[in-house]
Amino acid sequence: MLQKNGLGWAMTKTHDAVMPLPASEGFGMPAEWDAHTRTWMCWPSRLEAFGNQERFLRAKQAYARVARAIAAFEPVSMVACAEDAAEAKLATGGKAEIVDMAIDDSWARDTGPTFLKDGKGRLAGVKWRFNAWGEKYHPYTNDAALAGRILTRQNVQAYEAPLTCEGGALHSNGHRTILTTEQCLLNPNRNPDLSRSEIEACLRDYLGAQKIIWLGGVFSDDETDGHIDNIACFIAHARVLVGIPPKDHLDWEPVQGALRVLRAAHVQNGDRIEIVELPQPAKTRNAWTGKLMAASYVNFYLAKGAVIMPAFDDAHDEEARSILTDCFPDRDIMQIDALDIVEGGGGIHCITQQEPLP
Predict the structure, then answer these.
(1) Shortest CA distance to 164 belongs to which of 201, 181, 189, 137?
(2) Fewest CB within 10 angstroms: 90, 130, 271, 290, which?
(3) Is 350 a catalytic residue?
(4) Helices of type H across 72-210
(5) CA angle (205 as vertex; 350, 219 as ends), nearest 5
(6) Domain count, the chain
(7) What is the pLDDT confidence band of residue 17, given thresholds at 50, 70 and 90?
C-alpha cells in the first residue's frame, strides 16, 4: 500500500508501519562514472521490437558484442530466460555470467533497478513502477518484477517507489542533481494522477535529489517519450554533454530549448553548468517501423576505465569518438556498431545498467 505522508511518498506495511525513505536513510543516486561491481544486461527476447527474425538475430549479435566489450573491463551479468540461456552463453563467448530470470524485453536500463549508495558502504536500489513505456508492449509482467528480483538476488535493500519511471529517464551527477525530461515523466501515459511537484518530491525522496533540472520540448523519440539518455547526460559534477542534431532534424528546436535551460541552470551547490556539444549523426535514418531512428552518440556506457560508445556508419562517427576521448581522457574508447540495437528502439546505454560499488 502506498501513501503520502508529511515527509513525502512512502510504502506502508501491515499495521501502517511506514518504511523509511531512501533519502532519509542517507542514500542517493551515484554518478555513472563511479566504480562498478558489475554491469547488468538482458538478452533480447521480444521479437516484436525488431520486426523479423533476421533483425532479431542481428540484435542478439550486437548485444553480445557489447557484453564482450564491457567484460574486458568489468564483470557482466546477462539476464536471460531459461530457454535462451544456452544461446546467450554461446554468443557472449563465456564472457558474461548468465542469470536465469524470466523477462519480457531486453532494456536493462529501464527495467533493472536504479542503484543507490549512502557513501558509508551501503547499497540500495529503487524499484520503479513499470508499464512498458506507457503500455506500448504486452506482456510486461516479468519486466515489471525484474528490478525486485535483481535486488533480492544481490541481497540489496529495495525501495518501491510510487512512480512510473524508467532508468533511461534519469541522469545523476552523483551530487544530488538529477537531469530528466518533461516529455517522459509528465506524460499522462506514465503518471496521470501526479503533478510536477509531486513527481519532484518522489525523486527527492527516492534518489536523494536536491536539484532537478527539467528539459522541456517534444523530442522525436516517441518510443521512450523523450528519455534523457538519448538527449543529454552529465559527464562531470557540473558538465553536461548535449547531442546536437542537424538543423533539418525534428529534434533541432527541442535541443535548442534544452540548451537554453542548461545555460541558465545550476547544479545543487550553485555551480553553473558547462555544456559540451556533441554532433549527432549527419545521416537521418528510419527504423524498420518507419519511424525516425533514435540514433544518438549520447547513448553510451561508462564501464571501468572505458567508454562503450555507438557507431552508426556515419560521417560523424569519428568526430563523436574524438569528443568523447577529450571528455574522458583516462578511459579507453570502444566504439561498437549500434544500428542493429537502435532498430529495436534503444541504444548501448539503454541495454546496460551499472551496479555500483557500495
Answers:
(1) 189
(2) 290
(3) yes
(4) 85-91, 108-111, 132-135, 141-153, 182-185, 196-207
(5) 35
(6) 1
(7) low
